[in-house]
Design a protein that fits this description.
Elements lengths: L8 H17 L6 H16 L2 E4 L33 H9 L3 H12 L10 H34 L2 E6 L4 E6 L8 E5 L7 E7 L5 E5 L1 H4 L5 E4 L19 E5 L10 E4 L5 E4 L4 E2 L4 E3 L3 E8 L5 H4 L10 H33 L20 H15 L8 H17 L14 E2 L13 E4 L6 E12 L2 E3 L2 H9 L8 H4 L26 H6 L3 H13 L5 H4 L5 H20 L8 H15 L4 E3 L13 H12 L17 E2 L7 H9 L31 E3 L3 H12 L3 E6 L2 E6 L3 E11 L7 E7 L6 E7 L1 H4 L10 H19 L2 E11 L1 H15 L5 H12 L4 E12 L3 H10 L3 E5 L4 H10 L8 E5 L6 H11 L23 E7 L1 H7 L5 H9 L1 E6 L4 H15 L3 E5 L5 H6 L2 E5 L6 H4 L3 E3 L4 H29 L3 H4 L13 H11 L2 H9 L5 H6 L5 H4 L6 H25 L7 H23 L5 H24 L12 H5 L3 H46 L1
Parallel strand pairs: 15-28, 15-32, 28-31, 29-30, 30-31, 32-33, 33-34
Antiparallel strand pairs: 1-8, 2-3, 2-4, 4-13, 5-11, 5-13, 6-7, 6-12, 8-9, 9-10, 14-34, 16-17, 16-27, 18-19, 18-20, 21-22, 22-23, 23-24, 24-25, 25-26, 26-27
């Protein structure tokens, strides 16, 4: 690269194109023509799969068409939906997607046709204009807030390199383009997805915080692209000479594939560790430079920003069916009136009545045409049958319900300072109708707070009894034990350099809970503050009590190694059991991605001052000099460092090819560091903190530190550990194979400083590691170790511990070089890279030597057993889907009361790999089970009684794969739904989602999925309601969920209380809406006016009756009504069954309400009719009391249906009544000749002076509501009796069970 720096800009531009041609052709000039033809053939498919990024500075003076980056999105973001010009048409277009809005607009426009109009056209428009305006104003306000946010983001500043000024200049974010060079500074937010090319960090690392993307507050590290790693001066954009080929924009935050082509034709692979994502924050790095790869809406953060999810609730789907029935009723009534009008006109024959309406041409209309016109007129008159305000009212009520759920302090978690989050506003009522719950285990039912419990090394088990007693103290409430659990000393001050987590932390506090168990709230506060600075670092996790026997062996091993150092004895003389012990703890220490930080010795952000010294140190390490010597200058002031990608593969190959000088025995050990005084690492001077990406890694590193094997620093090419008696050893890091859910293991390849051997250390799940151990014919000792370790693994799993196996492998230089060559080819591939890398890792991680295994406890969250028991009493079926080992999952299931010791357990494990045998076994063993009790798939499964047996089903992932096959899924589901509990172990994320989808689609039941990690996202999205736990594994599950909870135990109140209330309120409100709008008084008047469409009620009252006069009380009731108190709902979970069976909204209830409305309209019409019969009152003097009586009847009807009365209920009813009379008095006083020949003048004033009006206001509502009041009381009495019987019966049944 130093030679490249000597070229001029012009030569760089020319050589840049030549280098690109050489890289893409790889042929001599004589083959250029053939290669060109070949490239043209491949060009089109390649453009569909990859993106090519050039540096923009090469095209500053070029026209827009010549810039190859011109087709990529700019960095200006626009999350608004509207512009000034497009708002009105676009918003109306969106609102007209609702059929109801289209219907009401059609009715309003129909009223403008003179031959069919029923009301004043302008007045008929008022309701629909009001509804559309309210919705439009709401949408406009939301869009304006998005616009303001966009403007703030787009006008943030960043430094972009300008070729004209030859320096970095400030530009707005919206001016950044793909291909621009950007300089990033500490604590600065990334404006786009940037490929890291340079860093001021001595190790060429850049520390970032990704809390805005995944919620994880622990620091991540990104590394400079390999080819720029050894740059010996500041990065100069003018000397950049590469072209980047990468994948198309996508929303996968954990993947980035591509390569960079240099002038020489060499290709270097690009990884996710080289990419800085938009929205992340630079931490602990003074300066970094990168090139923009994705900008604006093509960045991964924007592609993941899907906004709130929209789902249609079950209740809404049922409501839409009944809206359709209202349309049918409307058409039937209109048809009846049209036929009646035609017959009435037909009886006159040739003698037309004087009030007959002529056609537009002035001629008489035939009875048939009159009937047709009247049919359209009656659609306008009876439009109130379709509740225009129902949809808007439901939205308002749901927003209010969500607000009150947020205000519930019982759903607030003090430790994490987090409330419940509602991300889907339109399915709150579904919370009251759940039937199946699918839950993750780790982090959802458990704390995901991993605590080291015990281990086995070389076939010998170390129980760590003292450590078990220490953990037991955290569960005691005795404040006298507080000193045993608290850490001495005051809270260290967080230096400004490492204050990357000073913002409010979303992750839950690891230590507050444990300290609260032992007493002092001040201590809990202190622990909470400490845990906010370092993830997974509560005293319960850190302060491991070592096993005395194992500690003695570690000290014995260290003393022997110390003795061998002075006597120059070979390492082979070290006993095998002691060698395995030291290797075991070395693996625990270095096989991870833990970030090391020291608060009292923060990282110094200095630029490289002596490149030669660093190069000489690297050369000394590469030449095979003692790597256990003093730590190099590059790590002397490390405060936060970890490895996220491996050193350059090509440089590693070069080092392997170099001649290694013979190493004498004296080189097996390095000199004692000057800072070493024979004591262990002094934690009091500056306690090391470990920031891990997973709690498992932190638990193992803290466990190793308890045995004085401490991780003290990392470099991209070495890991430094401190061992007792040996001081600090630097392991040369050759390669890292990170953990993934497919392999379920992680490996590091290092050059051992004591033996100079290339060693592979691997840790992972026992199911993954045990299959990779050397064959059993490798020696009796290894066979014995494997056998004993497997027994101990089974014991650990039976105790509910998470198990990990530790293994190693020795490679020759030739073996590693051969593997690395193939691995490099896999890394640089774009197509099929994952498969190639998996195969490459498998070749390395075979024939391993087993060292031992660990057992880590994942503690249950508070209240989980009680919550599961309560949810079960509520009739909910709970399935746990976990990736853990079967024995571990079963033990946790017993602990959390998912499985009962008295239950019989069906365990399904497929020993045969043949799918046919598995299918045969399913059909033969479970023939009595049927998925559909009525033997008819078409029958509604959730309404048909089904017997759940006292059985528990446990199935592993391999068997589940067979069970989800099309030929077996019905039989599997029949078995599973017959069991009281289902536990799926070793299940993949895809299997989780498939199980949820199978149950939801086959059984037609309401499903809820709850989880806390990225592996639960697919399950959460498939379920009817998805709940995310804001836990240790980031915010992926929360971002994909409909509701987010701090803890699992809050699910009980969310479902049993708020779910029940939301469902009950909305169901009753919808039924009330249908009833209220069905009180059609005008229909009965048609029998007295020849079905002419005339109305005895003023059109102002008709238009605004449902929209204004009777709208407010039902909103208050729909928001605040409580049929049962929260305490009763939690004490009697059986009441939740009402929502599961849709007891509040049955189809017959709709028809009962319509019949009741039919009866009440009869009473409200005919009692005033007979009261004013043979009188001389005008039409409106008779029609206005009918309107008043209907309003009173409807309001009293609502009062009968209201279960909980508050001052707001009384106020809303008083307000509606006062509003009606105020409008009536003002209107009747100010409109003497508004609509001739009608005259509403002074009508209400005269009625208020008439005693008969007051008598009607008492008699009519009582007569209209007496049947409903009687039926409601009878049903309530019967319901109380049945409810009491059911509760007693349930308690007797539970006691018997």
């Amino acid at each position: 690269l130093s030679g490249v720096l000597q070229y001029s800009e012009h030569n760089i531009h020319l050589n840049f194109k030549q280098g690109l041609a050489m890289a893409r052709e790889g042929e001599d000039p004589g083959m250029a023509k053939a290669s060109k033809v070949k490239r043209q053939r491949k060009k089109k498919p390649k453009e569909n799969k990859t993106r090519t990024v050039h540096a923009n500075i090469l095209y500053d003076n070029a026209k827009g068409e010549e810039n190859p980056n011109r087709n990529y999105a700019n960095n200006k973001i626009k999350t608004t939906k509207y512009t000034v010009l497009s708002f009105l048409p676009k918003n109306l277009f969106e609102q007209f997607h609702r059929f109801a809005n289209v219907y009401f607009v059609f009715i309003a426009l129909l009223n403008f046709v003179p031959v069919v109009n029923a009301f004043q056209p302008e007045l008929a428009l008022a309701p629909v204009v009001f509804i559309l305006s309210v919705t439009a104003i709401k949408d406009l306000w939301e869009d304006y807030r998005r616009h303001r946010s966009d403007q703030e983001i787009n006008h943030m500043d960043c430094l972009v390199y300008s070729r004209a000024e030859r320096r970095y200049v400030e530009r707005y974010w919206k001016e950044v383009r793909v291909g621009d060079f950007i300089r990033l500074r500490c604590n600065e937010i990334l404006p786009a997805d940037v490929l890291l090319l340079s860093s001021s960090d001595p190790d060429r690392l850049c520390h970032i915080e990704t809390a805005t993307l995944d919620g994880e507050t622990n620091l991540k590290q990104r590394q400079v692209v390999r080819s720029f790693f050894d740059l010996d001066c500041d990065f100069d954009p003018l000397k950049y000479n590469g072209i980047i080929e990468c994948e198309k924009p996508n929303n996968d935050l954990n993947r980035f594939r591509g390569y960079i082509i240099h002038q020489s034709g060499r290709r270097d692979a690009l990884y996710k560790e080289n990419l800085l994502l938009r929205g992340c924050t630079i931490r602990n790095t003074e300066e970094a430079v990168g090139i923009v790869i994705y900008a604006g809406h093509e960045t991964k953060a924007m592609l993941n920003n899907n906004g709130p999810r929209y789902k249609r609730s079950k209740l809404e789907r049922q409501m839409n069916v009944h809206v359709f029935w209202c349309v049918i009723i409307l058409l039937v009534m209109c048809l009846f009136a049209a036929v009646g009008h035609g017959l009435w006109m037909f009886q006159y024959g040739d003698k037309r009545p004087v009030f007959d309406v002529l056609s537009p041409e002035g001629t008489d209309l035939s009875p048939i045409m009159s009937a047709i016109y009247l049919f359209l007129t009656m659609i306008i008159v009876f439009q109130v049958l379709i509740p225009i305000s129902l949809f808007v009212s439901i939205e308002i009520v749901k927003i209010c319900q969500v607000y009150f759920i947020h205000q519930d302090m019982d759903l607030y978690d003090e430790e994490t300072d987090s409330h419940l989050q509602c991300r889907a506003l339109n399915i709150t009522e579904d919370l009251g109708q759940m039937q199946y719950i699918f839950s993750d285990k780790t982090g959802t039912l458990t704390e995901n707070k991993m605590v080291f419990r015990r281990c086995t090394v070389a076939g010998v088990e170390y129980s760590h009894d003292a450590n078990a007693r220490r953990l037991a103290m955290y569960q005691e409430m005795d404040s006298e034990e507080e000193d045993c659990t608290s850490h001495s000393g005051t809270l260290p001050r967080r230096d400004s350099v490492t204050s990357h987590q000073s913002a409010r932390v979303v992750l839950r506090s690891q230590s507050t809970k444990s300290h609260r168990r032992t007493g002092s709230r001040a201590e809990a506060k202190r622990a909470s503050i400490l845990s906010k600075h370092t993830a997974f670092s509560s005293p319960m996790e850190k302060d491991i009590t070592p096993d005395p026997q194992l500690l003695d062996k570690v000290n014995e091993c260290s003393s022997q190694m110390d003795f061998m150092r002075f006597h120059s004895q070979p390492m082979s003389q070290l006993p095998s059991d002691l060698a395995d012990i030291i290797d075991f703890f070395i693996a625990l220490t270095i096989c991870n991605t833990v970030v090391v930080s020291s608060p009292n010795q923060p990282r110094q952000k200095v630029k490289l001052t002596s490149t030669k010294s660093i190069q000489s140190n690297l050369l000394r390490v590469n030449k095979g000099s003692s790597s256990s010597s003093l730590i190099t200058n590059r790590s002397s002031n490390r405060g936060c460092s970890s490895l996220l990608s491996s050193p350059s593969a090509e440089s590693t190959l070069t080092k392997l090819d170099e001649e290694q000088p013979p190493r004498g025995l004296e080189h097996s050990f390095g000199p004692v560091p000057p800072c070493y005084n024979g004591k262990a690492w002094n934690l009091e001077d500056g306690e090391l903190r470990y920031e891990a990406e997973s709690p498992d890694e932190a638990a193992l590193v803290y466990a190793a530190r308890a045995y004085k094997c401490s991780l003290v620093g990392r470099l991209p090419d070495q890991v430094t550990v401190e061992l007792p008696h040996l001081g600090k050893l630097s392991f040369e890091l050759l390669h890292t194979l990170g953990f993934d859910s497919t392999r379920k293991r992680m490996s590091v390849v290092v050059r051992h400083p004591l033996t100079d051997q290339i060693t592979v250390y691997t840790k992972g799940a026992d199911s993954a590691i045990m299959d990779l151990i050397k064959p059993p014919d490798t020696g009796k000792r290894q066979i014995k170790i494997v056998s004993r370790t497997q027994n101990y693994l089974n014991l650990y799993a039976a105790d509910g511990l998470r198990t990990l196996c530790i293994a190693k492998k020795i490679l020759s230089k030739e073996q590693y070089a051969c593997w690395l060559q193939h691995h490099l080819q896999a890394e640089t591939a774009i197509q099929g890279r994952e498969e190639l890398l998996f195969d490459s890792a498998l070749r390395l991680e075979t024939n391993l030597q087993l060292l031992g295994a660990t057992g880590i406890e994942d503690r249950l969250q508070d209240g989980v057993p009680e919550t599961i028991a309560s949810l079960r009493m509520a009739g909910l079926q709970i399935w746990v889907l976990t990736g853990d080992k079967q024995e571990t999952a079963v033990n946790i299931a017993y602990a959390c009361k998912l499985l009962d010791p008295e239950e019989e357990i069906l365990t399904l494990n497929a020993d045969s790999q043949v799918r046919g045998r598995t299918a045969k076994a399913f059909h033969s063993n479970f023939a009595p089970f049927e998925i559909y009790p009525s033997s008819s798939p078409s029958s509604s499964s959730h309404t048909t009684p089904f017997t759940v047996l006292r059985l528990g089903l446990v199935i592993d992932g391999r068997t589940l794969a067979y069970a989800l096959d099309k030929s077996l899924e019905d039989k599997f589901l029949a078995v599973a739904r017959s069991c009281r509990s289902v536990l799926c172990c070793r299940s993949t994320p895809l299997q989780k989602s498939m199980v949820v989808k199978l149950v939801r689609n086959k059984l037609k039941v309401m499903t809820l999925a709850i989880g806390d990690g990225a592996n639960d996202v697919s399950m959460i999205q498939v379920a009817d309601v998805g709940v995310g736990i804001s836990g240790q594994e980031g915010m992926q599950a929360v971002m994909a969920s409909d509701f987010a909870l701090p803890r699992f135990r809050y699910l009980q109140k969310l479902l049993l209380v708020h779910g029940h209330w939301c469902y009950s309120r909305l169901a009753n409100m919808i039924l009330y809406f249908f009833y209220k709008n069905a009180v059609t008084l005008i229909f009965w008047y048609q029998f007295y006016c020849g079905f002419s469409g005339s109305a005895m009620i003023d059109q102002w009252y008709l238009i605004f009756f449902n929209l204004m006069f009777s709208a407010f009380p039902q909103l208050i009731t729909g928001t605040l009504d409580k049929d049962v108190s929260a305490e009763t709902l939690q004490q009697l979970p059986q009441l939740y069954v009402n929502g599961q069976n849709s007891e509040e909204y049955k189809p017959y209830m709709f028809w009962m309400n319509m019949i009741d409305a039919f009866y009440q309209s009869l009473v409200c019409f005919f009692i005033p009719y007979f009261a004013y019969a043979d009188s001389d009152v005008d039409l409106f003097t008779w029609g206005t009391p009918i309107t008043t009586l209907a309003l009173f009847t409807i309001l009293v009807h609502l009062g009968i249906e209201t279960k909980t009365w508050t001052w707001m209920n009384w106020l809303s009813i008083a307000f509606s009544t006062a509003l009606f009379f105020t409008v009536a008095l003002c209107y009747n006083a100010s409109c003497p000749t508004c609509y001739t020949p009608s005259n509403p003048y002074w009508t209400m004033q005269r009625l208020l002076q008439d005693p008969l009006f007051y008598l009607l206001c008492v008699i009519t509502p009582v007569a209209a509501l007496l049947p409903r009041y009687t039926v409601v009381n009878l049903c309530l009495t019967e319901y109380k009796g049945q409810c009491g019987f059911r509760l007693v019966n349930k308690q007797v049944t539970l006691a018997y069970r």
